[in-house]
Amino acid sequence: MNLILFDDDSWENLLPLTYTKPAAELRVGILKVSEKWEKRLGTRASYMTHDYLQTKFSVKISDENLLINGTLLPDPDLIDTVQKLRMGDAIKKGSTLLAVKTDNQSFDLKDASLLSQASEYGKEVSIIDYPWKLFFLNGQEIAADFELITKGRTSKKLSDTVRVLSAENVFVEDGFKGEHFTLNASNGPVYLGENSEIMEGSVIRGPFALCEGATIKMAAKLYGPTTIGPYCKAGGEINNSILQAYSNKGHDGFLGNAVIGEWCNLGADTNNSNLKNNYTEVKIWNYPSQKFLKTGLQFCGLIMGDHSKCGINTMFNTGTVAGVSANIFGSGFQRNFIPSFSWGGPQGMTVYQLHKAFDTMERVMERRKVSLSDEDRHILGHVYAESEKYRDKF
Fold first, then answer.
1. Considering the entire predicted model, what is its pTM?
2. Do residue 98 and residue 159 come from a single domain?
């Protein structure tokens, strides 16, 4: 079986998080969406996505293809259903195509007849079709991934200096280190990844995932459901948030109901509001509609694309969206939509020139022994050009 994860129109709703990747490359819970499907189906996935992303995230087509929507989160019933699909079968949920099995070498997922002929899937599904769905669904996904990853395995032991509540809900991988901190897994599982670290004085409440190589700084306060992605550094106070990978919030300050992309850095004492003063529904910027969209949520904080940075004491308003490779600084609340490759803050913004942004990316990535590839440059160059229309208003 050849597994292909495809992007539909929800990819645009997920901008700026998906500017640099297919939707299935986003992390929610412990694993990326792609990793969830790969582990459950026992095979590797390729991607059917936007042309400029295919240079890095290529597609493999064979005589027997199982295509699954890249925003769809797997569960046991879905796994059973897609495994039983026969050639030519398709399933949908309302107007959303969920999965197709085909031997067609030149299929068109935008063909209206494909959706009209698909069978309606009768059970509930979880789909990350908007950025806030990532933190909203993070608790259920930590629990599902925890069960998948730890089933039949034995956890490593924590130090006697660690205070643990509901130890049966804690799993520790090889190489973890940490002393004199507190874990409360009463409300959800706690996963401590390979070679991760929790420093002294930290207090953590599940559901919580600390992924491979990630670090929690001293005296941090973390409320679940929160995921600290691979090789991230986190400190201060964090609530119901996801750091995708290689990003830092290493100092005091509050981050709540937020999704932070890869290779981001939040300066010391950065804070985001996640609740409006009048307690009304939060709206955030939506790229396809070119307007602020209702989230249906009372709590919604910061959505930040890959490679963005902010200076010390930065204040983000409720429901702020910051694009890819924005360099944000200055006193006062930032605007609640910050275009990609922006430079500045409330006192004024200008364009973050592409060659200067590349220079910064290279220095940042070299510190983690990672290179900025030609494929990455191609993708980021496309994002720079595509997002110019938003910077024209400076």
1. 0.96
2. no
